[in-house]
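Margin note from the TA: students keep mixing up input and output lines. Inputs are the sequences; the output is the structure of the whole complex. Example:
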Amino acid sequence: MRRSQFFISTLKEAPSDAEIVSHQLMLRAGLIKRLAGGIYTWMPLGLRVLRKVETIIREEMNRSGAVELLMPAVIPAELWQETGRWQAYGPELLRLKDRHQRDFVIGPTHEEVITDVVRREVKSYRQLPLHLYQIQTKFRDEIRPRFGVMRGREFVMKDGYSFHASFADLEREYRVMYDTYGRIFSRLGLGFRAVAADTGAIGGTGSHEFHVLADSGEDALAIGTGSDYACNVELAEALPPTEKRAAAAQALEKVATPQRTRCEDVAELLQLPLTRTVKAIAIMAGGEAAPPSFVLLLLRGDHILNEIKTAKLPGLEAAPFRFATDAEVEEFLGCKPGYIGPVGADRARVRLIADRAVATMSDFVCGANEEGAHLAGVNWGRDLPEPDLVADIRNVVAGDPSPDGKGTLEIRRGIEVGHIFQLRTRYSEKMSCSFLDENGKSRVMEMGCYGIGVTRIVGAAIEQGFDERGIVFPLAIAPFAVAIAPMGYAKNATVKKAADALYEELRQAGIDVLLDDTSERPGVMFADLELIGIPHRIVVGERGLAEGKVEYKGRRDAEAQMVAAEQILAFLRKRLCED
RNA sequence: CGGGGCGUAGCGCAGCCUGGUAGCGCAUCUGAUUUGGGAUCAGAAGGUCGCACGUUCGAAUCGUGUCGCCCCGACCA
């Protein structure tokens, strides 16, 4: 591609509303342009990157035996009503009416459509298994779109759905996809981890997320140092402490703590480590239907509540809980928030759930249920009855023992770029997607689904590859593999001839090359080529040509090197293979 | 959904407090000189100051409303 015939528009300064580096660089490099919140145009340069990502995904999906199709983005509401998701999905689902006032949705995901396709087309076990996928634009009306293409409302997704005659066959395909995803992200040149996303009934194999590791990631991951254990912090188990509860050594004592409502403040006042304090979080369980019950959750002062694990506890799993209002706290504990605690609570009305760590604490500090006061030297059994339930309700922290018993955990941040999931019969049952087995008996199909955030991958790749000059793309997804930067293209006939000849030579060799024939000043040219992240650069100048040489510089190299002009193709081929 | 902030040229910003002909840098266009790391000089084009209503002789500036965008919070006991 000749730059004069292409379209590249770069910026020196990033728009001020771009927060993270990938968003800033994508705007500066002119990969995307914002049209509305979370909605972007992919400019020609960005589209080249996106297409390369798609191509790798497509090649590996096809290689795994999946078959591509393309479903509509606009879906009749009936299908969504059939599975109940018309009601359940909430405001993220963009709904619209056609001219006949019929309801439609813009598809945020396509389980309903694919299941409808398959139930009409597939009747026999002989047609199974079947794995269909598409690469398509989705729309989710996110509460808060941000970070450019990382959390856009409109985005491109690869979504695949597999159909099976048995659970065992679903498990087989799931493993195939697990490996396929690993190959895809490796080929894309990304540093990633597959993490368990569900430890539920299916025994820990039911769902995996694929995360690109980056400090700006929105998800916290618990990663084992002594094994390949990896789990989303949302689900990672905090093991019970190994040490037993120590015997009470201190007397119960009320201490004045005016204006000290947070554990940090109380610990500071009493000159105690935060780990000796207990915080109480008041929630209302049972949802809005029945009269909700009051529950006090107890956590060590330095720990953080894990709402996902908490919501699965006995008595809380039926309906979503919510945090209690100030008035409810006063009603049940007779005290303002900030000084509440478990001691003296009316246990007929207040259910106590203690984190495993709290259950083994002794001589701890907690709110006194009296404004401006806390209790110190508190001990289970002596000062208050044992908790109604001891459970794992906190987020794991770095240094916690790994749940698999090997080593400890570290916390890394990740960007979720892929998710594989065993749907089982969740959709096939509701939509009567069935087949006749070998015995002529009708059975419901087992389903799996497999997603990759195609547009998000571009942002994630930049989060992993950038420096002070701009983007450092992996070769596999760079908009161009090689750039030729002639010095004085318009003025110097020798340079022009050499640059044109080299351009043709590389093109003939099948190398994806950009010739910067704009005659910009060298500094401008170099700055642009570095900003947009082209991995390899060749400078053709009069000085080098006089010695029969051109200059080569890799995007990550500190120094350029001179290469004989007649050897540059072989030299580049070698470089391109190394990447 | 709650809190905060911001809307002035393609991008980054000043002007607003104290109302009086809309500015700066980058980018763009013309010409000249430059040409191996974001050139220099001279000239030019580009904005109904988000939108609406109000106050006023007069509004980018003051008031009310509205729309959009961004950030933070939703872990608070």
